[in-house]
């Protein structure tokens, strides 16, 4: 048997904005879907930041983070 590995997926990055990549998830639903897809692909940990759905800029909004984490847990 090989060594066990923990895969971490950084879904959103901390400082990235939509103009840097068309693949950057911005809305809570996009972030949720990407986190679930990463888990299904084998990630054990998902590192993410909430984003303002209108601008795509990182936000520290507890409400958005709760929406995202609740959505990930439910899926």
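-> sequence recovered:
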């Amino acid at each position: 048997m090989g060594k066990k590995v923990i895969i971490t997926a950084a879904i959103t990055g901390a400082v990235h904005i939509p103009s840097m990549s068309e693949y950057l998830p911005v809305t809570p639903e996009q972030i949720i879907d990407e986190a679930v897809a990463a888990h299904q692909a084998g990630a054990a940990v998902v590192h993410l930041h909430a984003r303002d759905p209108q601008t795509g800029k990182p936000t520290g909004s507890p409400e958005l983070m709760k929406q995202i984490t609740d959505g990930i847990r439910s899926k």
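The radius of gyration is 13 Å.
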